[in-house]
Amino acid sequence: MNSLQFLEFVASDEPKYLVRLLGSDIGSLPKDRYLHWDQLRHLPPPEGFTSLDWWTAVKFKRMVSRHELPFKDTRGKPFSFSDTGNLYSRLHQVDRDASGRIEVPHGDMVNSGSRERYLMNSLIEEAITSSQLEGAVTTRRVAKELLRSGRPPRDNSERMIVNNYSGMGFLRENIDEELTVPMLMDLQRTLTEGTLDPDVVGRLRRPADVVAVVDQRDGEVVHTPPDAGQLRDRVELLLDFANGRTEDDPFLHPVVKAILLHFMVGYDHPFVDGNGRTARALFYWSMVRSGYWLTELLSISTVIQKAPAQYVRAYVFSEIDDNDVTYFLDYNLRVILDSIRLLHAYLVRKAGETSRLEAMLRGSDAALVLNHRQVALLGHMLKHPDASYTIDGHRRSHNVTYETARTDLHALDKMGLIVKYTGGRRWIYRMSDNFEDRLKRVVAP
Predict the structure, then answer these.
(1) Does residue 108 surpass a pLDDT of 60?
(2) Residue 141 is assigned to a structural domain of this protein
(3) Residue 202 burial (CB < 10 Å; 0-12/13-18/19+)?
(4) For the CA atoms of 66, 71, 73, 78, what is the dihedral angle to 10 degrees?
(5) Are 279 and 265 in contact (CB under 8 A)?
(6) d(CA 208, CA 187)
(7) d(Cα 230, Cα 232) in Å, to the nearest integer?
(8) 427: which strand partners?
(9) Is residue 340 included in any domain, yes or no?
(10) What are the phi and psi torsion angles at 68 (to 5°)?
(11) What is the number of structural domains in the chain?
(12) Residues 6 or more apart from 170 whose CB is under 8 A from it?
């Protein structure tokens, strides 16, 4: 039921009944869920009312709290959102958890030297799952090996993953820049180069480009984007919105703004391909730019991939129910909070693993294969995984000869615990990628 049908229904009914209906407080939903009519009509209505009564009260409550946005659909009707339900409660949770510290046992690991390692892992995870959402076919193991090794991609799926990884890096480099047409084109080019006809990379759709949004699972057309002739103006509006220059634009919560960027790129579909990847990448850019730095450590596509139908449904419901983007906001806020919970669980798990490894290093079995200097060095690496070491630095730390220090590091290199590379005229040593597994093999009882 759209707004016109709703008003017709209200106008056709008895005034006394409407007073009873709208004064009954049945406009709320179970657990403040933001449900569409297709979902609500399958639930038992409140006692004494029909499903249509219930939906009428829900729609009225949403209409009176509606905020119009500067964006319009292909017919010129504005998009809007309602502040009913858990919207602001969830925004408060994101404010609390995505812009500050995450405390875990044994210290604040996110704010330590471990952050870059976690960032690398999250960028890899997001590159893989965002590509898989767009049809890339590869295993997570192969994809991680591809990105960590830096080898050339072997097929289109691997190229898509490499491009997504590069795209996230591109946005990190431009986090302080305003979003411009050239920057948007460069982002799309980075995300799609080598996977599309070169003629359609890094440019907007043209009238000859026939594009429809289909559900990757069954090929069903779920959205027909605006005509190519409208794209210049629509993209300019999108850029003004992203940069905070929209005329007569009231304050919007930064997280709402980031999610709306995601939505509108998906709706406008300005490119022949790569729109979903571009939309999700711009969400990250907007969030981090607004001070939600922890977003860099999240992989929203990992959560989306678990139930992709819900992602599609959030788009569709927003379009068919009077351009009410609250469906998309509600869905994405839940995705963000789920991603934060996954990150927290991961950090707690890693903190526990680090504590166990430290205990192993202090145990008697470690003394059988490692001397006290090597144990001290490995213990430091556990706390500072991005640190680098030299023979001379190790020599001075333990007041030993150069040859003794060299022998210590050479032995750790042979065990696979550290790797060496040249830094000018000397060797530089760092923790190996599979450090934890190697250490368990070396010192485990």
Answers:
(1) no
(2) yes
(3) buried
(4) 30
(5) yes
(6) 23
(7) 6
(8) 422
(9) yes
(10) -75, 150
(11) 3
(12) 186, 187, 190
